[in-house]
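Cross-check.
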Amino acid sequence: MSNLTTHEIDRTFKYQFYHRENTGWLSSLAFFKEELPYFASLLANVNDKNTALEIRNQTFVFEKELEAFNQAIDEIKQSIIEEEWGFDDDAMGRDFLLGEEIYNRHVGIRERFQQAEKSFLDIKHRLYKFLCKVL
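Predicted model, tokenized:
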């Protein structure tokens, strides 16, 4: 196998790996986004049943966190879509060299996704702990 063929296989593998990772992230982000209205309804239920200022303040903080998280999801999703468009451009004949720029961009998206995943679990667990105390 020639050196060129090995290099082309390596690029194809990396492209497929990045694409598969993006697909998984998009699926997880969609799940996170689907959960947000459920969390918001739980907070609305708390507000309907409680008039204490301290509890309303806590629900307000959660609501703001959910709004910020929703925006973060949209931003990560947009970054993934833009990266995928770049992959599409390659498929249309552009030279797809998995150089440092593409690598760094993908690593940045990965780090942002991992932070979002941690944030989702943190918000979820703190919210459930709060609900157990007030409901």
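The two ends are 66 Å apart (CA to CA). The first helix runs from residue 3 to 49. Passed to J.P. for a second look.
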